[in-house]
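Sequence only, no structure available. Ideas?
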Amino acid sequence: SHRPAGALRGGGGGGGGGGKRRGMGGRGQRNSGPQCQLIFRGHINWYDYVGGALTYGVPRERIHFMTFLREPVSRAISEYNHITEGLVAQFGPHTYGAAWDYNFTFDPNRPIAKKRAEGTVDNWLKCSDCQVGASNRQARFMAGLATTGAQPHESSVSDAQLLEAAKANLRTCTFIGLMERYEESMTVLRNTFPSGLSQSMRQYETSPHPKGKTNAISDAQREQIRVANQVDIALYELAVDLFDQRWKSMQAQLPVSERGLSFKKAKGGRSFKLS
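Reply:
I predicted one. Tokens follow.
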């Protein structure tokens, strides 16, 4: 919800060059035009995707980015919950406080009670190294100005420069999704790649991480998080605008019979079906 995914697209002639691929519905299809040769994702930002591709001689123009963004305050709170109790629920007490690109209270040899006593929201917001996750993470991931995990307090990049770079990259993304409008986003994804997904992608399933218990967030803490994420908030506002534009464009191009189709959750499960 806060990182781009890279899709490496291969060549294909104007009228030919099609290849067989397998869609999410399990059916292979014959497509004309460029084909995605590789799709990859991870806790890696724009800078490292592009740098890694260039290292292996992949031209920048062959990389197409897809990204989901999330309302910034909710995203930051979610990250705090994930690196504390979420990790405990998923992997066990020894992982409490271990983010992928910074250390909050992680120490596998310390008692969980002591780590919990120190792992408060206030301490997370005060923690210098934790600013990687607590403030403007989405903008830094999208901007491509520094490697993943680079400490913001060690950077000479201003907030204005960060926002400008992040907005420029966001505008070039082949697909932009919003976590708050997930079902609509999956509909846009399906129609962004009509030759590969439009016929085969008719349902999907969610597989959320175990949540663990969550900590109450006070209004004062929520406001502190909001102030710390002003660049992300501005970037998210642009993402909403771009999403709305692409949604309207998609609807205008679809046959009338398909404009009402959307993904809806099936009863008693994690499946979402197109109907």
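The CA atoms of residues 219 and 225 lie 10 Å apart.
Hope that gets you unstuck.
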